[in-house]
Amino acid sequence: MGSFIVKRLFLAVVTIVGVSIIVFVCARLSGDVTFLLLPTDATEQDIRNIRQSLGLDQPLWVQFMRFVAAVFHGDFGESIKYQVPAMDLVVARIPATVQLTLSAFFISIVVGIPLGVVAALRRNSVSDWTIRSVAVLGQSMPNFWIGLMLILLFAVKLQWLPSSGRGGFSHLILPAFTLALFGIAAIMRVTRSSLLEQLDMDYVRFLSSKGLSARLILWKHMLRNAIIPVLALCGVLLANLIGGAVIIEAVFNWPGLGSLVVESVVGRDYPVIQAAVILTSVFLILLNLSIDVAFGVVDPRIRYQ
Amino acid sequence: MNMIDTQAKRKTTVSQDPPAFLHVDNLRTEITSRRSGRVVRAVNGVSFRLERGRILGIVGESGCGKSMTAYSIIRLLPRSARTVGGRIELEGVDLLALREGEMAKLRGTRIAMIFQDPMMTLDPLFTIGDQLAEPLRKHKGLSGGPLRERMLELLRQFSISSPETRLRQYPHELSGGMLQRVVGAIALAADPELVIADEPTTALDPTVQAQYLDLLDNLKKSRDLSLIIVTHDFGVAARLCDDILVMYAGRAVEKAPVEATFDTPLHPYTQALLKLVNLSDTDGGDHFVTIEGSPPDLSEPIEGCPFAPRCPHKMPICADEDPPEFAVDSGAASCWLYSETAT
Question: Using one digit for the tens of pLDDT, what is the confidence trace for A10-36?
């Protein structure tokens, strides 16, 4: 298990280096920041000066090396727009996004898995049919639209919950649930099909042939085997949720990383984009690492590889 | 009309015999294809008897219904299959009439099962010890020290090396032959009287196969077990079994003691199968031989004897009427050749 984690950590570092290169190059492909910073009547000299002061007159690879060197000192550069350290801006927004995505992830699992189990156990019944129909709706309707409808119902009509902003627990419910809908549907479907797949497996029949009760076979053996594909889905789902959070944050006016990134891309604030994307990928990689560890805990075959 | 006559005849012959340890009577099991909804009559009126301490081999080509017969007895059919008729009596109790809860009480304690592929038989996520402890806890009420003692004893009985280590290991850490021994130890943990083994040695290496067969034979003797071995391998059947049941197209076409089956096979199908075995033995087995033609489609109604289209001794009656079972010497065959009057 120890060497397994070390290997994963090494891969994580490689991934972060790759992400840095891609985001660095892509951010600069989006256009020249100088035109956004200077008045329209700026002279050639003004442009040269500001490019020099930002280090943009250097070749791309020199810029990148400087960036990497600075990052190793914990310096992601200054926001071009706000003139404060980019990392400070990003870090200020992180708790809100982490709270939103992790809540949505948690809801997806806690609601999705039991629904999948119920649907599998009562396959082809009314409850199975209902759960699956709602899941198809949940996966096919755009979540910003669902978000708006939920605001209309729970905030405007019923006035049970606040419509936007971040505050107490009540502010979290609508955005987290909206973001989680896709995850609930995805996890429910994989849990259902994976559990049904177990039913005709030899090991389940052998357990029955030992005279064990159906309940023990289900809860101890089948569920644990069925959860492996669900874990695999969780990694993809997390990336999906962080991407989805950008939109949901806009709908619910949630002060998270998503709105900051959108603003920075539009303003070509390279240091902020870089800091936000790299930090997000570190977050994602750490979450995926914990999923890999969870794999190892559930499945001895992976533990010993 | 003739079908009904035949079945009636079978029933009367059966009920005159003294009660057997296991008595399967006119068993019928169907598989419904999930896609097309077609119904395959996988087991179509199979009857046989098994006495205590004997080993019955069910042989036949793949798809003849031998595995479905086995799964029907312990009532562990796949979801797509179900038994639609007949009786399965274990010491006079009809297993097919039991509620699922009552049937579950018999599994492990009276009837046990060994599957074809040991790699697929055990739960990959739990240790050998964990899976061996389950039947002992449930049926024998063992725990703690006595449980561990009993587990080690069982593993030793199945000639499993370093049993202490095995208890801590996971299925993927053991070889196929070793795993099949472990499966045997788990299946027999709660002292069942009847063990059904579906192709127990097919997934094993030849040398390991022989050892496993010897092991089963020894266990049968020491525990007075009754065994049903489902196999397509006549070598396995000859080595281990007391009686042979040959199946074709979902029916039992021949039943006889093992020597009789090999010395004087009755049914033309058995004769053809044995000829193939002998042929492939003499030229080293690298020559692939088959019986001409193919088995009938079991989702279509069959008129007459199902083997008739491939049979070298075909008579006019064979195409029209399904042969009943005729007693011949020590065995029985469902073939018109043994009728005094058929032409």
Answer: 888 898 889 888 888 887 776 677 777
Q: Is A159 on the interface with B (CB under 8 A)?
A: no
The model's confidence at residue A170, banded by pLDDT at 50, 70 and 90, is: confident
Two structure tokens written together for B139: 């049926």
Average pLDDT (B264-284) is 80
A160 and A136 Cβ atoms separated by less than 8 Å: no
Distance CA A278, CA A20 (A): 6
Q: List beta partners, residue B196.
A: B113, B228
Q: Mark yes or no for CB contact B123/A213 under 8 Å.
A: no
Residue of B nearest to A224 (CA): B125
Rounded to 10 degrees, the C-alpha dihedral A291/A292/A298/A303 comes to -170
Q: Residue A205 and residue B115: Cβ atoms within 8 Å?
A: yes
Strand, helix or coil at A180? Answer: helix
* Contact across the interface for A203 and B134, Cβ inside 8 Å: no
- Nearest CB among B79, B122, B139 relative to A211 is that of B139
Q: Lay out the sheet containing B22-32: strands in order across.
A: B39-50, B22-32, B81-90, B93-94
The reply to whether CATH 3.40.50.720 applies to domain B2-110+192-264 is: no
Rounded Cα–Cα distance for residues A276 and A147 (Å)? 25
Element of type H or E holding B24: strand B22-32
By Cβ distance, the residue of B123, B173, B190 closest to A225 is B123
Q: What is the CA radius of gyration of chain A?
A: 24
Distance from C-alpha of A202 to C-alpha of A225, rounded to nearest angstrom? 13
DSSP B164-205: HHHHH--GGGS-HHHHHHHHHHHHTTT--SEEEEESTTTTS-
Residue count of chain A: 305
Q: What superfamily in CATH does domain A93-258 come from?
A: MetI-like (1.10.3720.10)
Q: Where are the domains of chain A?
A: 93-258
B153: helix, strand or coil: helix
pTM given for the model = 0.80
Distance between CA atoms of residues A267 and A33, nearest Å: 7
CB distance from A203 to chain B under 8 Å? yes
Asked whether the beta carbons of residue A201 and residue B120 sit closer than 8 angstroms, the reply is yes
Specify the range with the lowest mean pLDDT, choosing from A121-135, B5-19, B311-325: B5-19
Q: What does the domain layout of chain B look like in residue ranges?
A: 2-110+192-264
B133 backbone dihedrals φ, ψ, rounded to 5°? -70, -30
Q: Residue B181: phi, psi to the nearest 5?
A: -65, -45
CA distance A61 to A55: 12
Q: Are strands B93-94 and B111-114 parallel, antiparallel or unpaired?
A: unpaired
